[in-house]
């Protein structure tokens, strides 16, 4: 792995370069000591001055004693950090042909992108062009090296490093990130939680009745509790940094693989939701749009789904996604803006809040469970946020703030939307907004813009995990382009086949969010800390697992049944 911050990492190279890099490592240690002495002289003010970055090393998850470093997926930490963190923009395409050099663009998050060396910067700005003859020769030389993050071959030799410095070397072998402030942690958490799920909260009340607000509050409380369980799991053993690491510690390699697959499928399903969302809302803006090719006519929904795919596909080829991550951080602002527009339409545009609704609609409860569950599907990212905090004792407060503020937004949108539109409420409340209102157009365009920036960030973790599995002979420039493009096209095909936004969201929330948010954290906690937990913790975890399993079964069955009914 080659980190973009030369002072904070070591380089894993082949045995031919061990002596050179052992010496370099010793020099790095000496330089680090000098830097530490300078920091000590700076006093306590250094803490506040460094709070803007989320890239300071903590303990090394890939230290020699860690059993998690070389297990698939190795790219999870870096790709999820890019998805969840606000980063400095740096736009470039896949410009190097090998997977080894490709992975360099995903190694750092947030402000660490500001400190690249000129050599690395030059690598980042290469255009998306076919390699020339000299490039092919360089490619052959690169493939002889093992300085890879995704597929590392061997560790750096520590023989030439003094004994008292080996622990320091091990701790910085991979550049972890622990410099996020309280505010950054809250913003990252809300950015993950407040997504497209907010659009369907009025529809959830339509499905289940006003009792759904109680279900939403219960899910929020349980989500906070299970988030704290993940924290205890991370603290239980050295080297645990991510959700797959927790699965590995709890259930071995099988647990790691199963949890990783669940997380990646959930992200894949979110990308399908993005395309359905774009198709529905753009069709509302341009209902008469169509495309005729010979005897084939594409209606507005199909046309805009294909158009959106064409737009987002090049963004998945970007080597450095920090630009998209920086823009997508506006998702928090976008969610707030959409809710403000909704209230404006109700108050100023005289739509009114006249609908009373029902307290309980029992047949629709299973769908409502899935929709509410989807709202709290951020647990795949919470371990990364916790690992990145400068002060990890703030995590309970950060988690409570994230979930609390998100719940307020969800509940506000749900109450206003259902009071405004009643039984006519669509699966996305933006589809109910008046066509002739300027505020409505602002809300719809805001809804359209946000998923376009988040699509690549959401699909890339899955793409990188699959790239790890490619044979060495297939780790080529165009192979990676083709793999990512195929993933994008597959989401389009599924979105066109199942264009039911609310039902797909309910299915994802029932099947995957219940597992990731409620069932698996409790199961992993009991498996890892089984000898240290009290009876009340066992009872609480058992209760949450039972609730999660029941909600998952009911919601999944009901969602699939209604999807099938739409085809019959």
From TrEMBL:
Top-level taxon of origin: Eukaryota
UniProt keyword annotations, A-Z: Amino-acid transport, Membrane, Transmembrane, Transmembrane helix, Transport
Boundaries of every Amino acid transporter transmembrane domain copy: 179-559
One function term, GO molecular function aspect: L-amino acid transmembrane transporter activity
Membrane topology per record: Multi-pass membrane protein
Transmembrane segment boundaries: 211-230, 257-277, 289-312, 324-345, 365-386, 398-418, 477-496, 503-528, 534-557
Coiled coil: none
Bias (Low complexity) ranges: 44-53
GO cellular component, one term: vacuolar membrane
Keyword Hydrolase assigned: no
Gene3D superfamilies in alphabetical order: Amino acid/polyamine transporter I
Record-linked PANTHER family: AMINO ACID TRANSPORTER (PTHR22950), TRANSMEMBRANE AMINO ACID TRANSPORTER FAMILY PROTEIN (PTHR22950:SF692)
UniProt family annotation: Belongs to the amino acid/polyamine transporter 2 family. Amino acid/auxin permease (AAAP) (TC 2.A.18.5) subfamily.
Protein name (database record): Amino acid transporter transmembrane domain-containing protein
């Amino acid at each position: 792995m080659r980190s973009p911050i030369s002072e904070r990492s070591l380089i894993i190279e082949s045995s031919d370069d061990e002596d050179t890099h052992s010496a370099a490592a010793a020099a790095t240690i000496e330089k680090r000591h000098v830097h530490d002495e300078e920091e000590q002289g700076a006093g306590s003010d250094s803490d506040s001055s460094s709070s803007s970055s989320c890239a300071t090393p903590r303990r090394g998850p890939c230290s020699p004693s860690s059993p998690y470093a070389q297990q698939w997926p190795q790219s999870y930490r870096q790709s999820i950090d890019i998805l969840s963190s606000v980063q400095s923009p740096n736009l470039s395409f896949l410009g190097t042909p090998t997977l080894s050099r490709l992975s360099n663009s995903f190694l750092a998050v947030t402000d660490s992108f500001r400190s690249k060396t000129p050599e690395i910067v030059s690598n980042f700005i290469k255009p998306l062009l076919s390699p020339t003859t000299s490039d092919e020769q360089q490619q052959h030389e690169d493939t002889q090296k093992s300085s890879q993050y995704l597929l590392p071959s061997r560790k750096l030799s520590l023989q030439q490093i003094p004994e008292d410095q080996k622990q320091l070397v091990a701790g910085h072998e991979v550049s972890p990130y622990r410099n996020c402030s309280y505010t950054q942690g809250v913003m990252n958490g809300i950015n993950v939680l407040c997504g497209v799920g907010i659009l369907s909260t009025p529809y959830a009340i339509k499905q289940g009745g006003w009792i759904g607000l109680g279900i939403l509050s219960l899910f929020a409380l349980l989500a906070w509790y299970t988030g704290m369980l993940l924290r205890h799991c991370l603290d239980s053993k050295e080297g645990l940094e991510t959700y797959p690491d927790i699965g590995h510690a709890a259930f071995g390699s099988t647990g790691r693989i199963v949890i990783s697959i669940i997380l990646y499928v959930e992200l894949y399903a979110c990308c399908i939701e993005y395309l359905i969302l774009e198709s529905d809302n753009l069709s509302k803006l341009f209902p008469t749009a169509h495309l005729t090719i010979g005897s084939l006519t594409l209606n507005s929904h199909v046309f805009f789904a294909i158009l959106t795919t064409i737009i987002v596909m090049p963004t998945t080829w970007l080597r450095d996604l920090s630009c998209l991550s920086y823009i997508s951080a506006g998702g928090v602002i976008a969610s707030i803006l959409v809710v403000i527009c909704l209230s404006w339409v109700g108050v100023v545009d005289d739509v009114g809040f006249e609908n009373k609704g029902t307290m309980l609609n029992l047949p629709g409860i299973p769908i409502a469970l899935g929709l509410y569950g989807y709202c709290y599907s951020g647990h795949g990212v919470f371990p990364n946020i916790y690992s990145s905090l400068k002060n990890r004792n703030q995590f309970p407060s950060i988690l409570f703030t994230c979930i609390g503020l998100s719940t307020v937004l969800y509940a506000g949108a749900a109450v206003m939307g259902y009071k405004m539109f009643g039984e006519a409420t669509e699966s996305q409340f933006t589809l109910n907004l008046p066509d002739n209102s300027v505020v409505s157009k602002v809300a719809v365009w805001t809804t359209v813009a946000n998923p376009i920036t988040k699509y690549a960030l959401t699909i890339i973790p899955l793409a990188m995990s699959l790239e790890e599995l490619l044979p060495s002979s297939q780790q080529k420039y165009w192979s990676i382009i083709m793999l990512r493009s195929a993933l994008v096209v597959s989401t389009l095909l599924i979105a066109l086949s199942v264009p039911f936004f609310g039902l797909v969201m309910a299915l994802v929330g029932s099947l995957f969010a219940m597992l990731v948010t409620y069932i698996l954290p409790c199961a992993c906690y009991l498996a890892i800390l089984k000898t240290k937990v009290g009876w009340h913790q066992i009872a609480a975890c058992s209760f949450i697992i039972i609730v999660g399993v029941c909600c998952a079964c009911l919601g999944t069955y009901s969602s699939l049944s209604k999807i099938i009914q739409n085809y019959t």
